[in-house]
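Final report, Chapter 2: Outcomes

The project's central promise was a pipeline that accepts a single protein chain and returns its three-dimensional structure in a standardized token representation, suitable for archiving and comparison. That pipeline is now operational. To close this chapter, we reproduce one record exactly as it appears in the project archive, with the input sequence first and the structure output second.
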Amino acid sequence: MQDTISIHSNLATPKRNITGIINAYSRRLLGFIRKRVRNESDAEDILQEVFYQLAGNTQPIEQLTGWLFTVARNKITDNHRKRRLDLIDDIQDPANEDDEMIRWAELLMSTGDNPEFSYLRSVFWDELTAALNELPEEQKQAFVLNELEGMPFKEMAEITGETVNTLISRKRYAVLHLRNRLARLREELLNE
């Protein structure tokens, strides 16, 4: 099946064509994305980004279906990376962000196959897991649900029966503990 298209150069009415593509592929793409992200709003945002990229594309597309799903997969990966970077920035102590210090996000999100970085990433995630296990269950749950699973506080409140402010407070205590614990790891690594 060859469904080669060029949005801008081959079609006299690109808006109508894009609308047709959106109507034809939205349901399938959204189902694909939903299976790979934690919440509905992220899935809808990613779907919108896919179609936005399609509308801005100026190159011919040989396999439209494959192109759309590849872009969706890339957007999902970007979303996961962003969540990890947000997590790392959230637990990094803002008081220790001078230029000489190693930034956790830069260290842990480097894509190189450097064995030292791989080891440091492994140590970080092991330490994070151990630090989470030290927390009271309510604080751990608030942090994990919000930061790692991307659940909004409002949804957490509906599930747990707690108020949003209580959940925010629990997460804050978890973040403070994690900052303290990971600051010690950071000092150990820098002093080696």
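Archive annotation: Residues 6-15, 97-102 have pLDDT under 50 and may be disordered.
This record, like all others produced under the grant, will remain available to the consortium after the project formally closes.
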